[in-house]
Each structure stands twice: as structure tokens, then as C-alpha cells.
Amino acid sequence: MKRIISTKPGGAGPTMFEWQRGAxxxxxxxxxxxxxxxxxDRKGNLIDNIHLTGECLHMKWSxxxxxxxxxxxxxxxxxxxDATVAKGTTLIDTGMKNMxxxxxxxxxxxxxxxxxxxxxxxxxxxxxxxxxxxxxxxKAIVDLAWSSNNELACASSDRSFxxxxxxxxxxxxxxxxxxxxxxxxxxxxxxxxSVQQTLSMTLxxxxxxxxxxxxxxxxIELAFHQKYGTIAKYSWFKDNQLIVGFAPGYIVVVTTNPSxxxxxxxxxxxxxxxxxxxxxxxxxxxxxxxxxxxxxxxDLSNLQDVSSLITLExxxxxxxxxxxxxxxxxxxxxxxxxSLHTYLSKLPTLGHTWANRIAHLISLSDxxxxxxxxxxxxxxxxxxxxxxLFVSLGPKHLAVGVGPKIKYYCMSPAVKxxxxxxVFEYAAVKPxxxxxxxxxxxxxxxxxxxxSIVMNEQYxxxxxxxxxxxxxxxxxxxxxxxxxxxxxxNLVFPEEQFSQTEAGAIVEITSVAMTNEFLIYGTSxxxxxHYDLDEILMVNDYRHTTGITAIYPSPGLSTKVILVDDKKNxxxxxxxSDAPIEIPSFPANARxxxxxxxxxxxxxxxxxxxxxxxxxxxxSPLTLRGHQCRGLHKAATRLPYGLKPVLLLNGVxxxxxxxxxxxxxxxxxxxxxxxxxxLRKYPTDEDQGRALRLxxxxxxxxxxxxxxxxxxxxxxxxxLAEAALHSLDVSTAKRIYRQMLGDAGMVLNLERIEAVExxxxxxxxxxxxxxxxxxxxxxxxxxxxxxxxxxxxxxxxEWEQALSLANRMAPEEIPVIAREYAIQLEMDGNAADALAxxxxxRSTIAQNAxxxxxxxxxxxxxxxxxxxxxxxxxxxxxxxxxxxxxATDKQLLLDCAAVLESLKQLAEAAVILxxxxxxxxxxxxxxxLKSWSKVGKLIDKLNSSKIFLQYARAKEAxxxxxxxxxxxxxxxxxxxxxxxxxxKLNDMEGAAVLVRKTRSRESAKMMAKAFQAAxxxxxxxxxxxxxxxxxxxxEIAKSQDVVEHFAELVQDEASNELLSSIALYFETKGMVxxxxxxxxxxxxxxxxxxxxxxxxxxxxxSIDLAIETVGQAKNDALTHELIDFxxxxxxxxxxxxxxxxxxxxxxxxxxxxxRTAIIIxxxxxxxGNYRAAHDLLFDNYRQLKTxxxxxxxxxxxxxxxxHSYTLVKTLVRIDDHVKGARMLMRVSNNxxxxxxxVVPILTSTVVECHxxxxxxAAFEYAAMLMRPEYRQKVDAKFKRKIEQIVRxxxxxxxxxxxxxCPFCNNPVAETSLDxxxxxxxxxxxxxxxFHMVLEEWAVCxxxxxxxxxxxxxxxxxKVEQCPMCSAKVSPSDIVSVDNPEAYLRGKKSxxxxxxxxxxxxxxxASARAGxxxxxxREKVQKVAGEASGSQDSPAQSQQRGNVGGxxx
Length: 1448
Description:
By secondary structure, this protein is α+β, with helices and mostly antiparallel strands. It is 36% helix and 25% strand. Strands 1-32-31-30 form a four-stranded antiparallel beta sheet, with no helix packed on it. Helix 15 packs antiparallel against helix 16. The two termini are 110 Å apart.
């Protein structure tokens, strides 16, 4: 804020001051101890001095600002100063001593004066009535306040307040807890939306007391935290909020809203030491506070930030009082030493525009002209030396006026700017001189006060307060001429013929505007007149229905004008159009309209603004529906408080601020959004479509194209394309359909109509696209190409209208339209009219001379065929047959036959169908006529089952059974075929074969009875089952002793009840194994287990079934019973431990099964049964993987060692001796795990190592064989060679290849499976035994074990099977995996790194898992121990499939 006045009226203390209410023209002030009140104007000039007889105690301006009232010490008089004459005082004798305060009523008619003795004096200014009230309170009345209802509130130091009426009578009084001060009445908004007068005051400067007269017994007291200290000042704002300033420097905002009562909405420590005053300016929406040595200004909508800070360095802790003038333009502060400082807080928002230039007030006496058409923006300043009341700008002049006086400041250069609508006078290469004032000033005083002034380059039009308009030239000669000369150059409007209405009422001009070509004005009676300024002739007289209040012409060469009438409605009027266009949803509180000065071609944009928002409107003169104006209300722009829009340029709104500056505001409709922000702001298809449509409406096509391809919504682009078509913008719509939507059909359609130049025809084509066919026809008929209406109705199959149009404008189209109409009538079933149309189409073909011979022939064919069909349909069979005599068209023959059939002319219809080779239809008709001989001739040409069935029945009735059976078979009626074979031809075997194939229940029942009669019981049982009669089949089976056959047939499909019956039957017969099987299938697990345990243990199948039973039953009792049996408790014979393994597997306890498998495999390995051990471990490994259970590490290592051993045979067989030697070395390093074949394995190792060139390894293993315990067991044919290796050792050794560890890439010997660096166990290759590497990681397609791709392929090419699972594998199936790391991680996670202990540990683990409970642990341990302790003989070992000691 700028300080404009600083004064010190005198005195040794703070100066008392008051701004005039309303107009804020005067500032009254009086120094402490002085006896003079000074009245100064807004510039600080002294207007008058009011001389008193004592010190001024209090002064107040009346609400209308017409009168200043003051009271003085040692005087009984009330002093009144009249501001309307700016001089002279009136003294009113009050008769009251010790006066302290006064207050004006809201209507300015009543003055109340209070005394320190509790007395009250009321003076009625209009009538001069005096009302003294003695002892209103017992102690001093410290404050007064009038409500808008003329109720007077008095606060007294007797700790009470009262409310009185205009006569001074007390209507209410209340005692308080503290001394009241700072009385304020406020209009407070209630929760129900109503507004009520509310009284507020401070109590002992500690709390706020709020009193609602409508609820006198429900006052509110707001107490504050002790740290805030005493209340210095408070003020109401925004309906129901209070801002409270505390002496220690705090500011707090509270509300009287019941839901937020007691809550602090805002709190801040604004000053370090002291705060002395708080004032609110509603017009500025600001609050000012003072304290320490500063004044802080806050926006009430954002109290967090300080809008302005004024620092008074020499006034530390000396600021006393603040006051805003009512118009918000001035803020005055007083200090303790008596100084007054006035700051300019808000300038009058005076401004005017011409094209892209703005003239606006930048100080009380300075005007700036800003030119937005230059880069950078140019600004020139004009010092007016007076405070103007209005400002106007033309192309070459600035007009500044006060009352009737106007000064015209000339500007240069006289260059016509293109935005003025006039071409350049300078060549394009010559730069434009800068904008400047020439120093030439013309001054004129008009006969009365001026309301507004508008100018162009040549003229000025001045509107006076009486509604009269003067037009005069802007020429120096005019201003220099005498009074006689001036009159001849002045033109006065309205002209005499327009000065009165027909009823004799005086017409007043309410608004005026001027362009380079026209003077435009509107009147109070609705006339809008255009005058051509070249000839000063009225060229347009538009009469509105009601008075016009404002007009806004469009910029440039356009002739459009927006008028606003006194009903708050707005219209767009053009002198070249017939009717005005109403602006929809025009804001009722609109304060102004601005046109876009740089509009997009084809549309006119303007904005309407009120106090809070700016709404964008778009007027499009060319749309599908003609002229159209739409308001973009959903994209309204919020207008910050205090801003006044003055210019709209490319979507940027230039606004005046209260501080005399210009501020730019981008319209919400023109907001620039990049693709990412666009998608974030508009997430849905509908939102994106509306946003794209908005961008198109305002003409931002460049922005739209930048959003592609980020916006992918087809719906959004379709909405945009429809908007373009609605605006008849075919080229833009075509681009969208081609580039964004890829709609080739629409693109072709638009290319067809793009070349249409006539607007009305183009509207018709676009209306067709939108489906408004009536509008399209109207447009086409109005256009220069009316045939398009005919083509439209023809394409829509609206033949009546098309024929009517053809008769009028295109007779050559009648044949084709009549033909198509006839086809439509035929489809609708209107035969007579269709016949007439076919005849008309055939007879008028000569009218169309443009048809080719081919088209004529085709037309003749269609018409003749139609006439033939319609002849039959209308009953003229003779004519129809005549027309059909030479027809070969198959479809025509079929249609005619159908008509004849409907007319009951069946024989003729059948003959026609045969002519058309429609055999089945012909046969159906012959069947209706029961002409079987005709059907027989066609039978080999038919495929219809229905016809075959009818023919078969007829042949059967005639006794021709073979033909009947053949026809039934062709009809796929197998039941009847079987019946004829059985009953008529006695071919039982053939019938049985057919029924087994078709599985027909009816036929099966028939066959069952036939076989039962023939005593073929097994066949009878079979067919009863096929017939779905299992109970009958079972009874026959029991009675004829063929139950085993029955059970064999029924076991997969029988019900539980039937299965139980079969089981009981076998049980009674002593066939316990079969009985158990059927009990198991029927889910009778206890009975099934009982049967299986009764079976003699021969091949173990009964035990396997018992284990399966327990596994399905999941019953502890049955599990215990089976364990007792396996222990030998039942028959004294413990069973093989493998059954315990199978039991665990059956129960789904795979970890326990794995432990058992390890125990069994270890024993098999000890016995030399290596293949059996390998297969057992491999099967268990796969089972654990299938159930996603972890594989014990010991199982994995045992399988690896056994696989290394079994792999040797394959490697030796394919002559890969190096790998075989390496695998034998791995086995020999663990020779203790192969006790049954130590010597053969070591012998094989020596031989293979020697053969592979591993001489050092051969020597080491040969030396081991020469130990005493092994030497005598060495095979004689190898013994001599081995001794020679030991006696003559060769220490040469092939260095083993190193390959990277798949976990850490550390080099590791290729046969080593443990990495010394990362301590990981490395997976092995099932084809080579080497450790895996990532680069060659492959898996077996069957067992999914890992293998090195090259080694695996090499082996499979020779042995054609997987060495691990023995499944057949093709080399083409072996490929390296894409993600070996995932396989590596999976392999590692599959292994459980916990060891497997002794058999006892396995049993204990099993018991914990729930497979074995209680005392069964010891029993199972016993079984496992006995099984572990048993030894196989060599013969048994051989029978169990051991690999044995491999000797190469």
C-alpha cells in the first residue's frame, strides 16, 4: 500500500479521526487536547475547521455521510456539521452533563448520547424531537449501538446492558459477569438459513458475549485461553464469524455456527509484543491489524498469508487505531504521538478498452494506457492532475472526466492498428513507432454531468445523465471554435422522430457504443439503432420487447451486438439477421460482457462476469441448426475478489485490481493441459469427450491434435467428431474419423459431401448422418440440388414419398423406385398393390433412357418374376402358369410352388419343385398325396430323416420289411430297425450288434426279454443293464449263477446299494477278495478291510487293497487294525516294510513315506538291489514334488549316488568312457554304501579309469583292491592287469574341466556337486552326472529333472530314453529353458536340508504326523527293524532286479 497523506493535527496524545460514511469524501480528525475538528478531503486538503468550546470526546458520521456529530467536554451541546454544504455547524442543547459517547441509528434519523452518570439523550434529527432518559443505568454508559431495527443497546459499567426502543423505553435488560464494552450489532446467519440481528460485546476484555434478542434466555459466552490475554478489538465478517485481536498479539477466528461453537477456526501470533486494533473491510474482503510498529493486511479467504505489510519504523508500540473508508480505498492509522497516516488501499476500478489497448487508473490522478498488441507490452502514463470519475479510450484519444468536464489527451502515432479493423498505412518493413501521448490536450465542459463517453478515430459520443446523447468530431478545430461553431458540429440523439414513443413517453438513451463504422445506442423503450458514421444515417432500427440497459458490440468488422434488457435477459442482435438470438442462462447478476478480441474463425467467444465468476459463451453462426449460442457454465472461471475484467485476449482475461494494477487470468475453458494432466483431470471416456468438445468449441484445434495418441478413448473422439459435424466442419470431422477412429466408411461419406459448397445442402447431408431425415429433406428441397431428397427417401426405403418426389422432379427414376416399392409391398404381403407396382415398373422403363441393355434385361427379369408370383398370390393361376412356362430360376420355381401349395394345388406344386430339383419338398408333397411310387423314384436323391421315416412306415405296412429296415436306418430310427430285424426278420444277432452300438434303452429292454426267452442268461443280463434295469439284471444273475459276469459289467457304474449287494453275495460264497473289492467301491471301508485281511497273502494284492482302503477311509481305527495285521499280530507273520511305505503314501503323509522310502532304499542298496532302490527313491521324489512337499536332502543325495551308478551302463554302452569313469569314481568314493559289490565296483572303476586315460585314479583304486580283504575276491581275468598297474604306476592324469557354479559363477570341477565358495549343493545333470550350468539348462519333458542340453541330446540320439525315468524322449523335445535362474531357485527350494535319522527316528516322526498313534509306534518300529534286519539271498537279490556289481 502507498502512503498518500501524513498529518499531525496537534495535541499531546493520539488523534481522534473518522472517515465519512458512504462516499468517503472527507476525513474528520481532532488532536488530543485541542478544541478543533479538522475536515479534510481525500487528498488531505483542508475543507473546514469546526471550533469547539472544549476537547472533543467522541464523534461519528451519519450512515449516509451527510452529517458529522460530535460531543465535547464541559458543554451540554451536541455539535452537528452538514457535509452537503461543507461548512457551518449546528448546536443541539442536550441538557446533559458528562457526555461520553454517541451513536447514529442505521437510518441516520436518530442520535443517541450517553453520559458517565448513566443518563441517555435521544435526538430525532428530522423532527428535532429531544428525548432525555434519566438513570437508564446506575453507572456510566460506556458504549452505544443501534440495530437495523432501530433498537438501541447500551453497555454500562454497572455490569449490565439494556435494549431500548426509539423513544428510549427499556425493552430488555440483563446483568453480566463482567463490564461490557465494544457493543456491535450484526446480521448473523442462523443454521436454518435465516438472518437475525445479534448483539455482541466483550466482558472485562476477557470473553465475548453474544445475545440473540429472539432467544433472550440463551446467550452465548465465548471464553478464550488465558495465554491470549485481554481482548483489544473484534469484528464480525462472513455471516457468522468473528475475528478477535488480543493485546499480546494473537489473532483468533471463531464462529457462532452451533456445530463449530467453541472451536477456533484460525489462530496466529501475529505480533511479538502488542496488538491494538482490528478492522474489517467487507468491500475488500480484507482485515487489517496493527501492533508493534507494523500494519498487516490479510485476505479473509486466506488468513494464513499476509497480503500486505506496512512498517512504521519510528512508531514502535505507538499504533493506536485503524479505520478503512467505506469504499475500501483508504486505510488510516493513528499513533500515540498524534500522527495520522493514510494509505491508498484500493483505487476506483476505472478503465476502458479499445481493441487490445486498456486505459486504467493507476493512482488517484494518473491513468496508464497499456497496449497488448506489442511485444513486449507497451505502457504509457498520463498525469491528469485530478481524480477522474470516468475514463474512456479510443484509437487515438484518451478521455478523462469529472462531472461535466472532460479532457481529451491525444495519442500518437496516427497508425491504424490491424485490430482496429483498418489496414496499415506503413509498409510492412517499417517498424511501428511506440505508443505515446503527443502532449496535445483538448478540454470541454458539457452542459450537464456525463454518464459515459465512447470514441472512435473521428468522433466522440457523450451520454448525459438525462438520457441524451451528443456526437461531435474529435478535431482541434471543433474544440477551438466558438459557441456558434460548436452547435453546428454537435449532433443530438435521439433524433426528433425517435424521441417519443407512440404513447408520448420520453425516450431516454441508456447505453451507447461505437465502432469505426457505426454509432449504436439502446433506449429505455427497447430501440436499438445503428448509425452509419460516414453519412450519419440510421441504417438499422431494431425494436426489442423491453428496455435496454447495456450494449456490447463485437470487435473488428463484425456487426453483432449483445444487448441486455431490464429483465436481465441478453440477446445477440445483428443488423443483417432477421431475429435476435437469446443468450441461454445469462447470469442474473451479470456486471459486464467482454468479447474475445482474437476469435477463432467461424465462432465468436465472449464472457459474462459477475462478482464471483466468469462464464464463457460461444456463438456459432453456422451450425446444423443454424445460429447457435451456448454457455459453458460447467467450466466457469472463479473471479478472485476485487478483480474487474477489462480485456479478453486469446482466452486470457486481463483484470483491474483494487491496487491499480492489471492481472491476467486464464479462463478455465482455455486452460492448457498436457496429455498427462489431461488424462489425470478427465479419467472417464465421457469426461474426455466433453473436454475435447470444449476445446473444439473455443477453437483450440492445435491443443486437440497434441492430445493424440495419448487419448485413446473412441467414445471421446466420437463425441468430438460429432461436435465438428454439428458445426458443419467436415474437414475436421474427417481428420478425426480417419486418424483417431479409423472409420473408413465415415471418411468416404465425408469426402463425398466435403465438396458441397451450398450451406443448406451441406446441412442436409449432415442431418442425414445424425439421423434427422425430415430436416435433411427440408434442407435438400430448399437447396439447389433437390434430387438429394428423392435419393434420401429411396435409400430409407420410404417408397411412397420417394415416388411422390420422383413424379415431381425426376420421372426417369420412377421405374427403379416402382420396382423396389413392389418388392417391399410383396414382402409386406400386399399382393395386389405389389402386382400393380411391378406392372408400372415394367411399363415405364422407357422413361429411363440412360439404362444399359444389361440393366434393362435385369429389370425385365425382376419385374416378370414379381408379376408371376403376384399372379399366383392374387389367385390368377392361369396367368401365373403362363408366365412361368419358360422360367428356369430355381428360387422363382420354389416361390411359385410355395404359393401353389398354400392354394392347395399340390400336384402342380410338386411338379414345379421337381423342375427346380428341390427333391425333398417335392417328396413331402407326394407323401401328402400318398403317391408312394413318386416318392420311391426320388428316394435316392433325398436326405430328410422325416421323409425316410414316413416312407419306412409305408413300406412296413406293405410288408416290404427289408426296404422298411433300410429306410428306418437312413432315418436313424435305430429302435425301429432293431424291432424289424428281431420281430419281422428274426435276425437276433444283427439286432444285438445294432443295440450294443446304439445303446438304446428301449431296444435293449426288448433284446433282454428276447435273450431271456432264448435262455441266453449272460446276454439277458448284459441287455438289462443296457436298458438301465440293474436290479432285474442282478436278480437274473443270482438266479442263473452268473453274478461274476454281472459284476464285471456293472462295477464301474453301479450304485453303492448295488455294489453292497454284490459284495454280500461274494461274501456268502466265500470269495473274500471280490467281496472286499466291491465293499471298497461302495465306500464301506470297514467291511472292505475285513475282507482283505482275510485273504491269504500270496502276491500282496490284498494288502495293497487294504492299504488303499485305509487311505481312502482316513479312519484311525482302521489304520490301527491294518498296522496290527502288518506287525503280524493277527497271523504271527510280520509283513514286508514296503507296505508301511505304501501305507504312508496312501494316507498322504509323504514326508513320513519319504523317511520310510530312505530306510527301504538303504536296505535295498545294502543288498545290492540298486535299480529297485533307485526306482523307489525316484518315485517318492516325484510324489513329493507332485504334492508340493519338500524333498529330504538325504533322499536327494541317495538318488544322486544311485543314479550315478546306474548311469554308468548307459555311458559305457554309448562309448563315453570318460564320463563313465568319472561316475564310477563318484560311486567308489562312497563305496561303503555299496557293501554287496565292493570288489566288482572297484574293479570296474580301475578298468574304466585306465581306459579313459585317468592313470593316477586307476592306480589309486587298484591299490585299494590289492588290500588283503579285497585281493582274493578280484576276478582272475582282471587280477593280473590290476597288479601290473600297482607295480608300475603311471601318474599322468587328465585335468578335470572347470565350469561355473550356477549360484555364484565360481569355477567348480564339472563332476563336483558342492561349491567351496558359496557352500551350495549344485543340481546334477541326469545325462552326464556333471553339475548344472545356467547356459545349458534343460529339463526332461517327462520327469522334469535337469540336464545339460548338449549332453542330454547326445545321449537321447543314441538310447532314445531318459536315463532317470526311462520315458521315451525325442532330441527335438530338448531345448534350453528361458529362465534357468527360476529353475535353480525352484530346485533349491524343493530340498529340505534336514537329515533323516535311524528307522526309529522315522517312526517317531511318523507318529508326530498322526499316521501312527500311541502304542503302535513300538509295533511299527519292530516291523521296520525286522524288515531292516532281514537279508536277501543272492537268488532273491537277483529276483528283485538288482543291478549287481558292474564289471566292464
